[in-house]
TrEMBL record:
Protein name from the UniProt record: Aspartic proteinase PCS1-like
Single GO term (MF): aspartic-type endopeptidase activity
Signal peptide: 1-21
SUPFAM superfamilies: Acid proteases
Length: 445
């Protein structure tokens, strides 16, 4: 498993006593929260492979407040927490519902149970008599699952006031990659104990709290970064380039209508666009082929034709810099087979010379360069004495992963200011030194 990368993405509230006048103006009243990149599989994995790293945010829930760690996921709707109760062992930081005076389980006949969950793949449902609880059952493509009750409690975010929100109080969690109850079966207070759903569904945290804008900036490596909920915008980076959210009103079997879906116009390697037909990059009549911006996914995934074109061009352009792994059967995490073998020092020297890969969106672009293009596979060594590490291109095949969409993951959003502007139906991107942006608020340590 890769090393833990802490991103101490601290956040201030507009009314926080420690905030400077400059910081308050800069953040326009937004609430800032601690965010980190942590070596732990997201509890709600949506892909058919193991996630090694997830973005996590520390919040307080209940009365009196209990500190919990949640995966920040713009690709999921219902927030949920592992709760103390019967079932598999829990991490030490599981939420104790019985200890919160503001906790309330939702009853099955309530509107919240009857219609609020209309955007979930499996809507909430009534438990078998004589119970009157509203149940939630979450199942994911990697065979992970979570079950519990729909509940309500207060969430405290940074220095802001407590806000009420519905969430899943999960008492049974199974991870297909390592057992139930925790991160790969581990029982650690450092593991994520839940998920903060941030998509546009009716039960998402964004919708429930009427958040119309949020921004994050993920620093590269172990530098600090930034997450802002609400506010009137940031002045931490050059002008953002915006791409509109794609809307398809009619339901389609493979189109997620509450995801942050944008239009991919092309993929370039260096200065040249790959010869990929526009039809390959757009959703088809079933909805397959949409492009989603997802903080809950680590890497970026492309449909088969686009992935094949990128793999061929990147391998050809880097032949003098990187030696192909030469093992046709090797596939990292079931979706990455553009892999190489080289000592760490050689890769470090080659990274500045690697061709930049650009995801060209309608009105914006996400550019990936240098060390963000390669990922060292944990535990894999080759050559005499294990002198060579195994590296894979950080773009994978969504078809190999059992998906029908393009997904832009958070690894390729490093040192990019990303704004989700629900008010205007768009997502903005701007290159930024996220560590320096955080330091300007006076807390870069």
């Amino acid at each position: 498993m890769p090393r833990i990368i802490l991103l101490c993405l601290f956040l201030l509230a507009h009314a926080a006593a420690s905030a400077s006048a400059e910081g308050e103006a800069r953040f326009g009243g937004g609430i800032l929260l601690p965010l980190r990149v942590q070596a732990a599989p997201p509890p709600a994995n949506k892909l058919r492979f193991r996630h090694d790293v997830s973005l996590t945010v520390s919040v307080a829930v209940g009365t009196p407040p209990q500190n919990v760690t949640m995966v920040l996921d713009t690709g999921s709707e219902l927030s949920w927490l592992l709760c103390n109760g019967t079932g598999a062992p829990r991490p030490a930081a599981a939420f104790d519902a019985l200890a919160s005076s503001t906790y309330a389980a939702v009853r099955c006949r309530s509107p919240e149970c009857q219609w609020r969950g209309r955007d979930l793949p499996v809507p909430p449902f009534c438990a078998a008599p004589p119970s009157d609880s509203c149940r939630v059952s979450l199942a994911y493509a990697d065979a992970s699952s979570a079950d519990g009750v729909l509940a309500a409690d207060t969430f405290l975010l940074g220095g802001g006031p407590p806000v009420p929100a519905l969430f899943g109080c999960v008492t049974s969690y199974y991870s297909a990659t390592g057992g139930g109850g925790g991160s790969n079966g581990t029982d650690s207070s450092e593991a994520a104990t839940g998920l903060l759903g941030m998509n546009r569904g009716s039960l998402s945290f964004v919708t429930q709290t009427a958040t119309r804008r949020f921004v994050y900036c993920i620093a590269q490596g172990d530098g600090p970064g930034l997450l802002v909920l609400g506010g009137d915008g940031l002045a931490l980076a050059p002008q953002l380039n915006y791409t509109p959210l794609i809307e398809i009103p009619q339901p389609l079997p493979y189109f997620d209508r509450v995801a942050y879906s944008v239009q991919l116009e092309g993929i370039r390697v260096g200065a040249a666009l790959l010869p990929i037909p526009k039809s390959v990059l757009a959703p088809d009549h079933t909805g397959a082929g949409q492009t989603m911006v997802d903080s809950g996914t680590q890497f970026t995934f492309l449909r088969a034709d686009a992935y094949a074109a990128l793999k061929a061009e990147f391998t050809s352009r880097t032949r003098a810099l990187l030696a192909p792994l030469g093992e046709p059967g090797f596939v990292f995490q079931g979706a990455f087979d553009a892999c190489f073998r080289a000592p760490e020092a050689r890769v470090a020297a080659a990274c500045p010379r690697l061709p930049e890969v650009g995801l060209v969106l309608r009105g914006a672009e996400v550019a990936v360069a240098g060390e963000r293009l390669l990922y060292r596979v944990p535990g894999e060594r080759r050559g005499e004495g294990g002198a060579e590490a195994v590296w894979c291109l950080t773009f994978g095949s969504s078809d190999m992963a059992g998906m029908s969409a393009y997904v832009i993951g958070h690894h390729h959003q490093q040192n990019v200011l990303v704004e989700y502007d629900l008010q205007n139906g768009r997502v903005g991107f701007a290159p930024a030194r996220c560590d320096l942006a955080t330091e300007r608020l006076g807390s870069g340590a």
